Amino acid sequence: MPRNTPERTVRGWRGFGIGPWLVLPALVLLLVFYFWPLVRSLQLSGYASDIIGNPTRWVGLGNYVSLFTDPSFLYTVFISIVIALLGMALATASALAASVLLRGRLLGSGIFRVIFSLPFAYSAASASVVFAGLFAPSVGVLNVVLGAVGLNGPDWLSRPLPAIWAIAIATAWYEFGFSFLVLTAAVRDVPSEVVEAAQIDGANEFRLAARILIPIMRPSILFLVVTQTISGLQTFAQIQILTLGGPAGSTTTFVYRLYQLAFGNGTPDFGRASAVAIVLIIIVASITAIQFRLFRSEETA
Amino acid sequence: MSIFTKTRTRNTRPRTGTIVRFVAVLMIAVVIFFPVYVSFLGALTSNGALVRDGIFPKLADFTLGNFRAAATSIPLAQEYLVSVGVVTLQTLAQLVTGALAAYAFVFPQWRWRKLAFGLVVITLAIPGESIVIPNYELVSSLGLRNTVLGVVLPFMAAGYPIFLMRQAFSAIPREVWEAARLDGAGDIRALFGIIIPLCRPQVINAILWSALAAWNGFFWPLLITDTASARTIQVGISQLASSEVGNPAIIFAGAVLVVVPTMILVIVAQRFLVNGLSRGVLR
User: Fold this and answer.
1) pTM, rounded to two decimals
2) What is the Cα B209 distance to its own chain's centre?
């Protein structure tokens, strides 16, 4: 970068430059509310807690040992991953289908685009509230509609397996909006010459999608797979609003367990809750590291 | 007018292809639209009408009573106002801290610039829901539990808007900034008078994202508030969903009220959001 006058003036300003001062507000806030919590969580996770949650005595890895020898926590790890992957797969696959099918001209494509972006307007909480009304036992609309087309819907939220599906469906629906917007942008960025060349070669719609569009959209798909998995691992509102972790603990995900341990009805246990947080942070950080690797190898390939 | 708007010189195959495409899109659209349709309809018809008359209700079923019932079940108006306050404060704070930081990352040269930006990028990889306990301790110790400021404070700066604006500012030719500086504009003047106006679409995009995130927040506002005085509408409707379990119509009314502002935003700014995504999300 060329060093020219204005730069040098800025740099020379009291020998340090204005840069650090402008970054300071953001950096201080991020250090206090993102980095300090990492350090503090790590520290808290090494302590036992008194009855109001405050750290009492150092137990080293004790909280981690008690978590990983507790079958219900191992189940939490398992079900968090299952729900994250189910939600991500349903959302990404259906959004991919929708965005590829909507490529080019189609009757009503404007209306379809609006409909497909509507879930993006919902928060995890408001989507879950809608699904609470849909899944409600006896007064829920979903089973009435399923009944009308001859299907017998389960009592969604009172048995483990349907409840897990209910959470995954609500999650996928709410994630669909973002996925659709990302993939629509990706479809639009596919050069039209590439598409036309394939059509001249006689490729039908299916081959066009499988051989041309989807390979070109790979970075966006990969991005969604990673980000939706990460957000799925942090599922909370859906659980809090639809199942409260039940029935029988079957939908107790990472963040819901953290919430129960630290802020639930029992005595708060910030130590064990922080250990849960650290486990989640490590999992998310590893996924992010893999993502960076993948993107880098994609760029150099 | 037929659905075969594609005027290619091929005969039957692309036509069946288009029909298949249309039917497939329609099927996905029905599934995606179903929760929206049912929740709006449920909110606007008397309780039980959906179950009784199915999803095509009679005119006599329509009512606004569910909104009134929702407002007596939870302090809706107050929680709505709190949410508006949270969105305003949080978005403004993220815009100011973010624009200053992004400017400093692009234009002035300074020693630990790369390192500082690296720290910002790392925050993007920290799962927000997992750092609530220390933030809860901190905000509580400041005496800010149950206040709007307490809801906003941990989110006055965010990595993503900084990242978006840095991207946008980097695309501006350096000469533009240099010329402004030579004309005697200070850094703040250069940023708000020249750089931001030049990047208006991307800055608006960053603002939209900040505002959506602020409106949609749930976990943190749930933890840090315990009375209605600082409770956001997202937390309010979650409580509505548990207290009105037998009345889906009232639950739907709450869901409709909370989603209307963002739905208008998404419909109006739809093209805009797509533009922002293709340029912003993937480096």
Assistant:
1) 0.88
2) 5
Cis amide linkage into residue A247, ω under 30° from 0: yes
Name the fold adopted by B75-280. MetI-like fold (1.10.3720)
Top-tier CATH class for A64-124+155-300: mainly alpha
Chain A contact probe: residue of B6, B19, B25, B235 with most A CBs at under 10 A? B25
> In this complex, is the C-beta atom of B134 within 8 Å of any C-beta atom belonging to chain A?
yes
Say which residues have a Cβ less than 8 Å from residue B78's Cβ, sequence separation at least 6. Answer: B228, B229
pLDDT at B148 over 70: yes
Instruction: Name residues whose C-beta falls within 8 Å of residue A171's C-beta, 6 or more positions apart in sequence.
Output: A83, A86, A87, A91, A124, A232, A235, A238
Distance from the Cα of B136 to chain A's closest Cα (Å) equals: 10
Does residue B53 register a pLDDT over 60? yes
In a 13 Å sphere around the CA of A34, the CA atoms on its Cβ side amount to: 21
**pLDDT, tens digit, 9 for 90 and up, residues A164-215:** 999 999 999 999 999 999 999 888 888 888 888 887 887 777 778 888 888 8
Residue stretches of chain A with pLDDT short of 50: 1-15, 301
Chain A contact present for B69, CB below 8 A:
no
The reply to whether residue B116 touches residue A173, judged by beta carbons under 8 angstroms, is no
Euclidean distance between CA atoms B64 and B67, whole angstroms: 6
Contacts of A195 in chain B (CB under 8 A): none
Q: Would you list the domain boundaries of chain A?
A: 64-124+155-300
- Residue A138 is predicted with a pLDDT of 65
DSSP letter for B230, please: G
A3-39 per-position pLDDT tens digit: 444 444 444 444 457 888 899 999 999 999 999 999 9
Q: Where along chain B do its domains lie?
A: 12-63, 75-280
Under 8 Å between Cβ of A105 and B1: no
Instruction: Indicate yes or no: CB of A186 within 8 angstroms of CB of B238.
Output: no
